[in-house]
Amino acid sequence: PAGTQARRLDLAGLLVAVPAALLIVLPLVLGHQAGWPPVLFAAIAAGLLLGAGFVLVERRVAARGGDPLLNLDVLRAPGLPPGLAALAVTQLAYGGLLFTFTLYLQAGLGDSALRAGLTYLPMAAAFGLVGYFWRRLPAGARAFIVPAGLTVSVLAYLGLAAGVRGGTQGGFLPFALAAAGLGLGLSVSPLLTQALAHVPPARAADASGLFTTAVQLGQLMGVAILGSVYLTRATAHLAATHPATAMAGTAVWLAALSAAALPAALVMVRGARRRRGRCHGHRRSDKIAA
Q1: 0.85 exceeded by the pTM?
Q2: With the C-alpha atoms ordered 85, 88, 92, 97, is the resulting torsion angle positive or negative?
Q3: What residue ranges of the chain have pLDDT lower than 70?
Q4: Termini Cα distance of the chain
Q5: Which end of the chain is more exposed for a tag (fewer CB within 10 A), N or C?
Q6: How far, in Å, CA of 84 to CA of 39, rounded?
Q7: Alpha carbon distances (Å) from 1 to 7, 8, 204, 205
Q8: How far is CA 112 from CA 68, 69, 88, 165, 230, in A?
């Protein structure tokens, strides 16, 4: 638009952010195959230090009146930090599920790519339906929909662990996958809506970048970390009899991750209810004054 000044490239922030992400993600991807040598842990530690340095660089750029790659003021938006944390953990579990369960179906059970893909149909159908219709719930129910979705995810992943122990695709497994889709549908889209509701329009681009990065890095780290968990269990002596043992153990980790996202979701809900209560209080005061 006319009168809008283009943002300048934050070269300093870019030069710190890219190697920080690379030093954290690459060792996680290569760790299992390389046998986790000490140099990989040193690289992860260096990446975390660079991540802290990125925060300092961005603050300095903003203090000088520049255009930081990520304006950290966006984190002051009510509900955004806990929502971002919950989303990152949820996507970590989701990425790990897609990778490990597909590996289990194709390498463990010998399924074709087509049959493995069709196995996900109950999950995809439940996710799509719930993601489309959740807005029709009453406003009071929508406030608690994210914790409810995460709770369903915990139960679904535990059901998945029970369903794969026999080394087959029958029985309870389709219902566990449908429940996983239900949990994701109840949590992901409502979580984004609630976490971004109070972001100022001027910080919308920063918030969008944060959440997009959280989704992509969360799924990538889920593939790397939970993939390592599955492959380690699959090659261990106790799991040598059948990959189902490895998948069942990995599914328990998925349930634990969903449970770990619950506190952040509850903090977001509590903050939203508190803000809603203050708004109602102000409205009543205005009516009385009028």
Answers
A1: no
A2: positive
A3: 1-7, 166-170, 236-241, 272-273, 275-290
A4: 41
A5: N
A6: 30
A7: 13, 16, 17, 16
A8: 47, 44, 31, 20, 20
**Helix axis angle, 145-164 relative to 173-196, nearest 10°?**
160
- Give the number of residues written for the chain: 290
Question: Quick one: pLDDT at residue 1?
Answer: 43
- pLDDT at position 288 is 52
Return contacts of 68-75, CB within 8 angstroms, 24+ apart. Answer: 68/10, 68/13, 69/10, 69/13, 69/14, 69/17, 70/13, 70/206, 70/209, 70/210, 71/203, 71/206, 73/203, 73/206, 74/199, 74/203, 74/206, 74/207, 74/210
The SS3 call for residue 116 is helix
Provide the phi-psi class of 59: left if phi over 0, else alpha when psi is between -120 and 50, else beta.
alpha
Q: What is the pLDDT of residue 203?
A: 85
**Is residue 280 packed enough to be buried (19+ CB in 10 Å), middle (13-18) or exposed (0-12)?**
exposed
Q: What was the pLDDT predicted at 2?
A: 43
Spatial distance between the Cα atoms of 36 and 171, rounded to a whole number of angstroms: 38
Predicted local distance difference test score (pLDDT) of residue 139: 74
Taking alpha carbons only, the member of 96, 108, 97, 111 closest to residue 241 is 108
Residue 131: both structure tokens together: 């993601």
Kindly report, residue by residue over 8-46, the tens digit of the pLDDT: 777 888 899 999 989 988 888 888 788 889 999 999 999
Residue indicated by tokens 């890095």: 217
Q: Which amino acid is at 215?
A: V
C-alpha 103/C-alpha 231 separation (Å) is 9
